[in-house]
Specification:
With 1682 residues, the protein is an all-alpha fold. It contains 63 helices and eleven strands. Helix 9 packs across helix 23.
């Protein structure tokens, strides 16, 4: 069946019906197969996605009669209708089987096979297997087996064996794609079953058998067709597309691992060792070098609470040992010895840990302690490359895969059979009509006492019909509607109907909904007020409030049921939710006194979501979430199944290891919190790994089990689990990015609230209007009196006409429109976003107009008409202003009163004309002064000076650390600098005031920011002069904000961030409400339960056997009562709950919070180890519902705003216009032909070398050498012998010489052109530095480390990323980074500015904190460098919980508020918890916002690149490559080539202009003009190729005309030519000549009889050739567009 037949079948309203598969069908199938084998070209058919195996066959293919159920049918898909037949079960599910009977396969007509096919396709058979698998899964979670478990295992094994036998006979063994072994999942079943039989026969193999049986869980995948299709799609699409990213990631990890080995090898073994001061170094060396010397752990220096000894280093910026200790290299590495860079394996693990950002702060501190703070650069680069860019590539590829899947679904929906759609529509219309008729009949039978009741019932009926039509088409039986209307529609008596109508008016009134909304908000406030400890009065108040609100909600439900009758009430989803809330509230009241059922109080938080029906955004988001989860159900099932499988596998593999080797990880030989000894803990461990925290559990796994077992298990979870999670996340973000377009009708409650608010607003406006009218009358009379007096005095004046021409006061018009205009302008001026209204009414300097509103030219032209009608204030307008200033009513009246009415002299006479002239002269002087000020502030040199001063004033803040009082000179210089900066900024502000006027200045948001900074400078000066105002100096950090207004890049980024963020405020509030619900739930569960009794000597918690409650703790007396302490992070109130949830959301400190929760018992009771273990479920539900889903909502909303702005503002909203031009140049630079070719030397020897070094073989040899040298570095280790070190040195020398030889060869070949290529300069620098390093090492032995030379040589591995040298896939993956680099640079500058400001703020507030927990010698706020280290740590969301816990230590027991800090007057080392919370929470939110936009920029750039590759477009690079290829075929630049070279030219072009051979027929069909000598012009070829690529696009003619115009402009002296023929005509002439020759030869053959046989053979050959040419010519003429 051909492609056209298939298309007709798909588009036909009546597709091919269901036909039984018979022997005649089999014979026809065999004939069709044989016929297609004989044909040269087979039809290019593709399978119909709607007819895949496992899908439900559409009813458009006909009805399924009972005799056709489970019977062989002819396949309706032409693609499969070759050697298969189809079977449908009673659910119309499609199954396919092979029709052949080879390889021990029975015939399709065999009774046994047909019977087993019926068994196989029956729904109960699959259900039976699924139940068996689920039963097996349940018992796999058990460790303690009972006696009958063996019987169950044998039964399940028998079921699986029976399933295999049924499939083998029904499908055949190996007879095609639908045979048993044609499905990979059957291979898995067969292998596991066979392995189980073998293992049962071998003794002592139970552990292996139990592990292998866990693969049974994967049988769920083929049993769920949707999950099976998803797995195939992820395997085929995602993993293949991710191959390049995985390869680049592995290469990057390897390179950075080698760099880490070179920098940090052996450094993490340096520890502080107690050593007597009198001992000399020799004794130390002898004792520590003794192999039999064993040192006890007590000799190392430990920080309080740390497991490993304090690390130290030899560098000055590394950690130094305290007095009495010396730094030596001894012992094992930290973290059980697994954290180090001593060999490639451990270095690779450390880099992989940094890539996944798991506990990076620990490794961060260890390296900085042992090596020095300068190596922070290493972590910055690693974090950017891996945690940002590699993650962006993974997300981008998954996003592209998801979008392609969406497009496929959309195309599939378009190809849906019109007949099926029409039938479905008719079916739905028929059902709707029947229901409508039924409703009308019932309405006629029922009396209608009021019109409103009838209308309500009709609305309900209509709504029900709409919902039914929107549904799946499965309507309820008619009897159910009759039953519902009989018992759930209460219209029993007229009195009841009157009551119903009265209640309906009350409960449906807008003010009733407003009152209910207020009650919901008050209820939420009452829920949020609960805390610990609470006094009796507050507790009683909250209890009474709970009863009141339950009563209100119950009354609401009852009244609505009366008003709407139960049928209408329960028809709305929100009403059902309200009834559930009421039911749970009443249940709580009845069970209040029952012990153990207080958990019912948790359902109070459901009342928070009652806000949803009054909140359209909440409704849209929840609707989008529900539909997205339904659409992604297969992904969710796959994720849950994978987690379950991993947990069971971990249980079976590591359960015994944790039981027998637990003493290696715990001194008391008790199981740790995170283990895999039982299923629940194994599940928790897997969940923790998927959350990104796996390294600590991996260390413990290494201790109790082997590394060979642990590493594959963890790698499987991290790779596969994160792939599925990221795919789900991308799909949710894509869904939420379109939530605003969701067709959701606003609820009646929301409309009522809006109507009530509108009525209230209207009433308030009416009251204010009435009161203002009385005042306006009195004011108007006064103004009119003054105006009349003024008119009378100036009627005879000659200047009246001049004044009236320049100044008019249209009071009446301004009264009606001025208030609204001014109000709108004030609101918009509060934002940094430029607004059209602002540009119309606010004067903007010419220099600022482009910055604030680049499109304000049209607005200014529009505002010209209105400005002519408005009053102009002469004193505030200048030539520098683009718009005149309109005067408000108040200013107008003041101006009227204060304006001199022709000044009089002392004798009462009016001023003379000379006096008026002097006034005009003064006015001109004032205008000239303003013009001069405007010219000054608009001068580019002035702007550069102010920018420089801004940077200097900001940078000066970095010197004000805790050591500033010890540096007197610097302190004095900074004080004078602050004064100078203040005066400069005040002067700038005054100049701008003079130039622009006050209104224009303060209407500009950036100028308001500058004004704020000036106030900060003044406050700092005041604070220095007075001791009581000293805290004002802490506002200095705001000086850094002035940088935002001085640089265009910052302005662009800030505007873009505001535009992408502000519209998401409603979504953010929805997320906040979800967090509020979880915080209230946490208060209900854990308030007051995190207290514990601590042993002050050890710092550990007393066991429950010694202390059981608070009273026993306080009765334990040693020196004093034992402290009954609360955890730093707790849920004692909603505020603390929010902070604790933030730590859980950032996965910082969340383990401690969960430990406190699962250990908690009750208030005033001592916690016990995992006494309340199922409280883990609370945190798991929060991570899923409170973190993952809201994060998807928020990022989806940001992406939606980003796309909108991108459509309006261009390709990238985070770059300036100048940077956009630079991006275009960068794209040309990244093209393959960006470098001009180097001319070949004329010297033969140089030419030979030139050919050698430019050959691909030479390039491959160099890459092999680069990787070979990298492999030599891989085998190095910390404890290698002296011989290995010598060998390593000589290997380095040899490779340096080889690179030197390469350099010499290229210099000989390229001559002076060598240094015109950047890569060659890089290679030259590598050679110079490597040779220098080797020479210095040989001469001095210690001046230059060999490691540095090795890293220099290793840097050449970057050539792998070079275009044309390394794999092209790497170059393609670097394109998004390069093209988004300007935007990333702008965003990085902004985040650096934020980091700088917060570092300064941290220095002012937390510089003297006690060093403990997260504050130590490396991470602290004492100096600017250390403060930046802390801020960088918070930026990557690592370890900020420890810093905050240190700041929380504000009590006498934790810190000393009177501690004397040397060199300063500040006392104490305590922190301010409130300042700390505001500091870290605000920075985390700002940093997260910027980083999310950075991810979006890269991913969107990745989308652009992929979309451009798919789209049929041509760029400048494509045309440039065409002319470069042309130069090879036309070296003399004649613009013509011979027609014989046309085929080679077309084959040599790069895509998309490429025409691969054979291409002569296609070229002939282009009908190219040919000049004399069979020459073709380059422009004709380029136009024809362009027309071929673009097709019949509307833009094609425009593009072609632009190409031709551009070519003519580039070649003004081109020789004109006249085409004499075309390629098509020339081919026709050739074919005609061939036919004539053939006729002539035939004539000669008839004349010459002697050579008949020979000539006949020649003639046959010529006939064949001519026939082929004729066919080819016919096809060419058919394709020709001329």
């Amino acid at each position: 069946m051909g492609a056209s037949t298939k298309l007709e079948m798909l588009e036909s309203p009546e597709p091919k019906g269901l036909v039984p598969f018979t022997k005649e069908s089999l014979e026809l199938m065999k004939q069709r197969i044989a016929k297609k084998h004989n044909e040269e070209h087979e039809d290019d058919l593709e399978p119909n996605i709607d007819l895949e195996v496992g899908r439900v066959l559409s009813s458009a293919y006909g009805n399924l009669s009972p005799e056709l159920v489970s019977a062989p049918l002819e396949d309706v898909d032409p693609y499969y209708n070759k050697n298969t037949f189809m079977v449908l079960n009673k659910n119309r599910t499609i199954f396919r089987f092979n029709a052949t009977s080879t390889c021990c396969t029975l015939s399709p007509f065999d009774s046994v096979r047909r019977t087993l096919i019926k068994v196989l396709v029956h729904p109960f058979f699959r259900l039976f297997i699924l139940i068996s698998v689920l039963t097996d899964c349940i018992f796999m979670t058990k460790n303690n087996f009972v006696d009958w478990i063996t019987i169950l295992e044998n039964t399940l094994l028998g079921i699986y064996t029976l399933e295999i036998l049924v499939k083998l006979i029904a499908r055949g063994i190996w007879a095609g794609p639908f045979s048993f072994f044609g499905d990979p999942w059957n291979w898995l079943d067969f292998s596991v079953t066979l392995f189980e039989f073998i293992m049962r026969s071998l003794p002592g193999s139970s552990s292996i058998l139990v592990t292998a049986r866990t693969l049974r869980i994967l049988k769920i995948i083929p049993l769920c067709q949707g999950v099976k299709s998803l797995v195939g799609k992820l395997n085929d699409d995602c993993w293949k597309k991710l191959g390049g990213v995985v390869a680049l990631t592995m290469l990057s990890l390897s390179v950075f691992s080698l760099i880490g080995m070179g920098l940090f090898m052996g450094n993490l073994k340096h520890k502080c060792l107690r050593w007597p001061q009198e001992s000399d170094n020799g004794t130390l060396y002898n004792r520590t070098a003794n192999p039999y010397y064993s040192r006890e752990m007590e000799n190392y220096y430990y920080l309080e609470g740390e497991r490993d000894a304090l690390l130290c280093g030899k560098r000055t910026d590394a950690s130094q040992c305290p007095e009495g200790y010396i730094c030596v290299k001894d012992g094992r590495n930290p973290d059980y010895g697994y954290t180090n860079f001593d060999n490639f394996g451990w270095a690779f693990l450390a880099l992989f840990r940094l890539m996944t950002q798991d506990y990076p702060e620990a490794l961060y501190h260890q390296i900085l302690y042992a090596s020095g703070k300068i190596y922070m650069v290493f972590f910055v680069v690693v974090s950017f490359w891996f945690a940002f860019y590699m993650a962006s590539l993974f997300l981008g590829i998954l996003a592209v895969a998801h979008e392609e899947e969406k497009q496929e679904r959309a195309e599939r929906a378009k190809k849906m059979e019109p007949g099926y759609q029409q039938n479905l529509k008719q079916l739905q219309e028929g059902k709707a009509d029947a229901q409508n008729k039924t409703t009308q009949i019932e309405m006629k039978k029922r009396p209608s006492p009021s019109v409103s009741t009838t209308v309500d019932m009709l609305d309900d009926a209509t709504l029900r019909q709409k919902e039914d039509v929107k549904g799946t088409g499965k309507a309820c039986p008619l009897c159910w509607y009759k039953f519902a209307k009989t018992f759930f529609i209460w219209n029993c008596s007229p009195c009841w109907l009157k009551l119903k109508e009265f209640v309906h008016k009350i409960i449906m009134d807008p003010f009733t909904d407003l009152a209910l909304l207020i009650c919901i908000i008050l209820n939420i406030l009452f829920l949020a007020l609960e805390h610990h400890p609470m006094n009796e009065e507050t507790n009683n108040l909250l209890s009474i409030g709970n009863l009141v609100f339950i009563g209100i909600f119950t009354a609401e439900m009852i009244l609505k049921i009366i008003a709407m009758h139960p049928y209408g009430y329960f028809h709305a989803g929100w009403n059902i939710f309200d009834s559930i809330v009421v039911f749970l509230g009443l249940t709580e009241i009845f069970l209040m006194a029952t012990e153990g059922l207080s958990i019912v109080r948790l359902f109070r938080m459901l009342r928070i979501f009652k806000l949803g029906k009054y909140w359209p955004t909440f409704t849209k988001l929840m609707w989008t979430l529900g539909h997205s989860l339904v659409a992604l159900k297969n992904v969710i099932v796959l994720l849950v199944m994978f987690i379950f499988f991993s947990a069971v596998l971990g249980l079976k593999v590591f359960s015994g290891s944790y039981e027998h080797c637990v003493c290696k990880v715990d001194e008391d030989c008790q199981l740790p919190r995170w283990h895999m000894h039982d299923f629940f803990h194994s599940f928790l461990t897997v969940f923790r790994i998927l959350c990104g925290e796996w390294i600590e559990t991996l260390w413990e796994c290494f201790e109790v089990a082997s590394q060979i077992t642990c590493i594959p298990f963890y790698i499987m979870i991290i790779l596969i689990g994160n792939l599925v999670i990221l795919y789900l996340f991308v799909a949710l973000v894509s869904s939420f990015s379109a939530y605003q377009s969701a067709a959701i009708e606003e609820s009646n409650e929301a409309k009522n609230v809006q109507l009530a608010m509108a009525r209230i607003k209207e009433g308030i406006n009416n009251v204010l209007l009435r009161s203002s009218c009385k005042k306006a009358k009195v004011l108007k009379e006064r103004v009119d009196n003054v105006h009349d007096v003024y008119v009378q005095e100036t009627t005879s004046d000659n200047t009246l006409s001049a004044l009236s021409n320049t100044q008019e006061f249209p009071r009446d018009k301004e009264k009606s429109s001025g208030s609204e205009l001014n109000t709108l302008t004030e609101k918009e001026s509060q934002s940094l976003i430029p607004s059209p209204t602002l540009s119309e009414t606010v004067p903007i300097a010419s220099g600022e107009s482009d910055l604030e509103n680049p499109d304000n030219k049209d607005l200014r032209s529009k505002s010209g008409d209105r400005s002519s009608k408005e009053k102009i204030k002469p004193s505030s307008s200048s030539e520098c202003s683009t718009v005149d200033i309109a005067i408000s009513e108040e200013e107008e009246m003041i101006y009227e009163r204060e304006k001199p009415k022709h000044p009089q002299n002392g004798n009462g006479r009016r001023s003379s004309p000379g006096q008026i002239g002097r006034e005009n002269k003064k006015r001109k002087i004032w205008q000239n002064i303003r013009k001069t000020c405007c010219k000054i502030v608009e001068n580019s040199w002035f702007k550069c000076f102010i920018g420089l001063v801004t940077l200097l004033s900001t940078g000066a803040l970095a010197f004000e650390d805790i050591y500033i009082n010890q540096r007197k000179t610097i302190k004095i210089l900074l004080e004078y600098a602050d004064m100078i900066f203040t005066y400069i900024f005040i002067l700038e502000m005054l100049l701008k005031w003079m130039a622009y006027g006050f209104k224009a200045y303060f209407s500009n948001a950036w100028y308001r920011l500058d004004f704020l900074v000036v106030i900060v400078f003044c406050l700092n000066l005041i604070g220095k002069s007075r001791e009581d105002l000293r805290p004002l100096t802490s506002t200095k950090f705001l000086r850094a904000l002035r940088v935002l207004s001085q640089f265009e890049r910052m302005k662009v980024v800030v505007r873009a961030l505001i535009k992408t963020t502000l519209p998401t405020v409603s979504v953010f509030l929805v997320c906040l409400v979800i967090w509020l619900a979880f915080s209230i739930m946490g208060v209900q569960l854990f308030a007051g339960k995190f207290y514990e009794c601590i042993d002050p000597t050890s710092g550990e918690r007393f066991p429950v056997s010694e202390v059981q409650n608070k009273s026993q703790c306080e009765s334990l007396l040693f020196n004093d009562s034992m402290p009954w302490e609360n955890a730093e992070m707790n849920f004692d109130n909603v505020g603390n709950g929010f902070l604790s949830l933030l730590q859980v959301a950032t996965f910082n400190g969340w383990i401690d919070i969960m430990n406190s929760a699962v250990d908690s018992i009750d208030i005033n009771l001592q916690p016990n180890f995992e006494d309340n273990i199922y409280m883990y479920c609370y945190f798991i539900s929060f991570i899923i519902c409170g973190l993952f889903l809201p994060l998807s909502m928020l990022i989806g909303a940001i992406v939606a705003n980003f796309n909108k702005l991108k459509i309006k503002g261009g390709s990238n909203i985070f770059i300036t216009v100048k940077q956009k031009r630079q991006c275009r140049g960068l794209k040309r630079l990244m093209s393959e032909d960006s470098q001009r070719p180097i001319p070949r030397p004329r010297n033969k020897f140089q030419g030979f070398i030139f050919g050698m070094v430019t050959s691909q073989i030479f390039n491959v040899i160099i890459l092999v050498l680069i990787f070979a040298y990298a492999l030599t570095l891989v085998i190095e280790s910390d404890n290698e012998s002296q011989q290995m070190k010598i060998a390593s040195f000589w290997i380095t020398t040899i490779f340096a010489l080889l690179y030197t030889g390469e350099f010499l060869l290229k210099v000989i070949a390229f001559r002076c052109y060598y240094f015109t290529i950047g890569w060659n300069i890089f290679d030259f620098m590598v050679v110079v530095f490597s040779i220098t390093g080797i020479a210095l090492h040989v001469m001095t032995d210690y001046l230059i480390s060999p490691t540095l030379t090795q890293l220099i040589l290793l840097s050449r591995i970057i050539h792998v990323l070079r275009l044309g040298k390394g794999p092209k896939v790497f170059h393609n993956l670097l394109l998004p980074l390069m093209f988004s680099l300007p935007a990333l640079l702008n965003l990085s500058l902004l985040i650096f500015l934020v980091m700088f400001a917060y570092a300064i703020l941290g220095m002012y507030n937390f510089a003297y904190l006690k060093k403990e927990l997260g504050i130590n010698d490396v991470s602290n706020f004492e100096t600017f460098g250390s403060s930046m280290l802390c801020i960088f740590q918070v930026t990557i969301f690592a370890g900020w919980d420890g810093m905050l816990n240190t700041i929380f230590h504000s009590k006498w027991s934790d810190c000393d508020p009177d501690k004397i800090n040397p060199g300063t007057q500040i006392r104490g080392d305590c922190g301010n918890p409130y300042v700390g919370i505001a500091y870290f929470v605000s920075y985390i939110f700002i940093a997260w916002l910027i980083i999310v936009n950075m991810y979006i920029v890269v991913i969107m750039e990745f989308f652009n690149i992929v979309s451009k590759k798919k789209a049929k477009t041509l760029s400048e690079d494509d045309f440039r490559r065409f002319f470069q290829v042309w130069e090879r075929f036309d070296p003399e630049k004649t613009q013509y080539i011979d027609s014989s070279k046309l085929s080679d030219l077309a084959a040599a072009l790069p895509p998309p202009l490429l025409m691969a051979k054979p291409n002569k027929g296609q070229l002939v069909a282009m009908d190219l003009p040919m000049a004399v000598g069979d020459r073709i012009h380059c422009l004709d070829i380029l136009l024809a190729l362009t027309r071929r690529v673009l097709g019949k696009d509307e833009r094609m003619e425009k593009v072609l005309s632009e190409i031709e115009t551009g070519f003519m402009l580039a070649n003004p002296f081109k020789i004109t030519y006249e085409p004499i023929t075309t390629t098509l005509k020339r081919k026709q002439e050739t074919v005609s000549a061939t036919i004539i020759q053939r006729a002539y030869k035939s004539y000669r053959l008839r004349q010459n009889v002697k050579n008949t046989s020979d000539i006949h053979m020649i003639d046959d050959d010529e006939d064949v050739k001519a026939t082929k040419e004729e066919k080819h010519l016919g096809k060419a003429e058919g394709r020709s567009t001329i």
